Amino acid sequence: MKILVPIKRVSDPDNANKVKVSAAGKIETTGLENKPNPFDEYAVETALRLTENGTNPKARLGEVVIVTFGPKDTETTLRGLLATGADRAIRVDVTDDQLDGDILARALKAIVEKEQPDVVLLGKQAVDGDSNQVAQLLAEYLGWPQATFAGSIKSDADKALVIGREVDGGTLNVKVTLPAVVSVDLRIVAPTSVTSMHTPATHKYADGVRFAALMAIMAAKKKPLVEMKLADLTGDVGLKITYKGAELPPARKAGVKVKNVQELVSKLKNEAKAL
Amino acid sequence: MSNVLVVAEMLDGHVRKSTHSAITFARKATAGGGTFSILVIGAGAQAASGELAAYGAQKILVADDASLKNYICERFAPTVAAVAKAGSFDVVTATASSYGKDLLPRVAAKLGAGYAPDISDVTPAGGKLSYKRPMYAGNAYGHAELTTAIQVVSPRQSEFAAAEPSGGASPSEVVAVTPPDAAASRVEFVSMESAKSERPDLGEARVIVSGGRALKEQFAQVLDPLANALGAAVGASRAACDAGYAPAELQVGQTGRVVAPALYFAIGISGAIQHLAGMKGSKTIVAINKDAEAPIFQVADYGLVADLFQAVPELVTEIKKVL
Ligand SMILES: Cc1cc2nc3c(=O)[nH]c(=O)nc-3n(C[C@H](O)[C@H](O)[C@H](O)COP(=O)(O)OP(=O)(O)OC[C@H]3O[C@@H](n4cnc5c(N)ncnc54)[C@H](O)[C@@H]3O)c2cc1C
Ligand SMILES: Nc1ncnc2c1ncn2[C@@H]1O[C@H](COP(=O)(O)O)[C@@H](O)[C@H]1O
To answer: What's the gap in Å between A210 CA and the centre of ligand 1?
Structure first.
């Protein structure tokens, strides 16, 4: 099986490092940690699990091609994922402000047509823009089936996948015949979420994504990484969504600590009138 | 002036309550002029469509067909796009549930429309609509505009209060079901697994009791009595879901459900930004955590530093006294 995984480098806020908004109303991410979008790391892990025998992961039984749209320094992110096991990488040279989900999907379509993967595996959302759309747009442009928010994937035969989609009311199981576009959810990296035809059913992976060994980091420097130009992939580069400004969320006013359960209940009843 | 098409979501033969948030969005987006209609789509849509007759829609459009029994995007999207085109709608909307999030981008691609996902507000400004969107796990809001004539938008259920009926009876009209995408033959519905529960849905509950990793295998044993006493929905942190203490669909947060109940209990939850992103719009927040430094206390109106295994049973007893 050949799998294409689009990955995004994101600036990730945490409890200490917050997003700022400049006087001109632009979101500032200086000081935030740059890392691969977590969902995309999960997609790479999923792709690796589908193209190996889990009991002997060194022998590759398929191909995983990763692609990012970003400036030169996002190659560090690509190298990091090549070190965990991806086979090849592509970087399309653009900056974030030249992109929206629609341009990405159009350009990815051109890459898919060239690479002819069986599956395109994406993250369900990039955690900076929280847009949750590239997989769905790409599926429509390709005329392929889409299975979004995959919490489990079972490949019985190379030509079909049974996918457990995490939806509001529970898990919706669908069977898709390849080629298809799949976006992954958090639970996809649990020990038994991905069942590949190459791996014994009894095999359990470690929870989460695999880390690169030092040797692999060295070896990854020699794996193929090619650069492409956006203009060669899509002629239509007009943004469909633009941001005219930004603001920070209103701060919640500081609350109080209560001494005990009795005081909590009394405050909820009499002060907040919430009971 | 905008004319808005609301796409309803069906569940078990009825219109799902989440739809009422998209109606609220439509009312707001047409406040400066324009009308909205509602498309009820799915097997049994005809029978369910009456549930939306009194919300002030210009028309209720009904696409009812046996082939629409189980939701498959490749079967629904072509009809939604065709109805949007035929009615010359300017805006197509569905609430940002897992249904809206799966369906709308595919519809947008068919229409050549820009898509504004997961918005928290809409302002009609000078003939244009401006959309406010939470980004970076709710740590910033962007003001977005779509550059296309036809626009696709998914509003958040937690930010658009469920619409109340406004009276009257909208006329209903049957619309043709467009043939599915070719790709539909390559997607097959297998099954839906849901832990049927008598509790309210997270998106609709007035009170939510959420638990974190700290609950361990006693998740239900500790939280159920509290949720039962309050008639509350149960939520969970990612860590609790990943560990299997709670089903995945209960996850609250940036990448789970976004909720804004009148009262939210965070029990044994540290308060990572990804969790806060899903609940900090709640009216009153209570945190119970044994670590006085836990970040959850920064957003809690009432914080109790205590061992939850003692505090929660006590809380159940005390709450029963005052209810
Ligand atoms: C891409 C991505 C998406 C994510 N999306 C989400 C999301 O949507 N929702 C979400 O919740 N998280 C999400 N997370 C995970 C998030 O970062 C945190 O890891 C998670 O919220 C932690 O869950 P927790 O608070 O239950 O566990 P922990 O952080 O382990 O906290 C447990 C808390 O329980 C307290 N405690 C322990 N024992 C007791 C006791 N006996 N009595 C009282 N208190 C006790 C501890 O002091 C601690 O504060 C996401 C992460 C990533 C990378
Ligand atoms: N700049 C990018 N380069 C490559 N892939 C991307 C990029 N942006 C988004 N994606 C992919 O699209 C998925 C969904 O992103 P989004 O729809 O923007 O939330 C991500 O998880 C990635 O797999």
So the answer is: 21
Q: Does residue B125 have a pLDDT over 80?
A: no
- Domain membership of residue A22 (yes or no) is yes
Average pLDDT, integer, range A185-191: 97
Longest alpha-carbon distance in chain B: 61
The reply to whether A265 falls in a domain is no
Please report which residue ranges of B243-283 form alpha helices under DSSP H.
273-276
pLDDT tens digits for A65-84?
999 999 999 999 999 999 99
Q: Is the CB of B270 under 6 A from ligand 1?
A: yes
- Looking at the CA of residue A131, tell me the nearest atom of ligand 2: 19
Q: Is A39 in the pocket of ligand 2 (CB under 6 A)?
A: yes
């997989």: which residue's tokens?
Answer: A135
CATH topology of domain B207-322: Rossmann fold (3.40.50)
Instruction: Provide CATH code, domain B4-186.
Output: 3.40.50.620
CA–CA distance, B256 with B107 (Å, rounded to integer): 23
Contacts with A105 from chain B: Cβ below 8 Å: 109
CATH number at residue A242: 3.40.50.620
The pLDDT tens digits of the residues spanning A9-50 come to 999 888 788 899 999 999 999 989 999 999 999 999 999 999
> Between A16 and B138, where is the model more confident?
B138
Task: Confirm if A123 and A183 have CB atoms less than 8 A apart.
Answer: yes
Indicate whether this model's pTM tops 0.80.
Answer: yes
Residue closest by Cα to atom 38 of ligand 1:
B214
Domain count within chain A: 1
- Cβ count near A167 (within 10 Å): 22
B111 touches chain A (CB under 8 A): no
Domain hosting residue A134, numbered range: 2-249
Tell whether B134 is within 8 A of chain A (Cβ): yes
